[in-house]
Amino acid sequence: MDHDLALIVGLVLIILSIPSIIAAFSDGHAPRVAAFTIIAGGALLVWAISSKPGGYTISDVPDTFVRVVARYLP
Q: Transmembrane ranges (predicted)?
């Protein structure tokens, strides 16, 4: 897995776990699956940022997202 893909997958995992956290708290349950998803997404983010020479900036994220989507969609 390359750095760009890991960054985007990590961000998508974190963003998609937010509704799960809200639903778990509103039902009175512990957000176990959402917590695991956030940990996995955070690990992917940390790996992508630390292993890419020069790292990423906030302004690099939209361009990276478009490049990754364009690479994997026909």
A: 33-50
**Could you give the CA distance from residue 1 to residue 59 in angstroms, rounded to a whole number?**
22
DSSP 24-73: HHHHT---HHHHHHHHHHHHHHHHHHHHSTT---TTHHHHHHHHHHHHH-
Is 31:21 a contact under the CB 8 Å cutoff? yes
Which tokens is 69 given?
A: 């989507």
Give CA–CA dist 27/37, Å, rounded: 19
Q: Mean of the pLDDT values across residues 17-46?
A: 95
Domain coordinates in residue numbering, the chain: 3-72
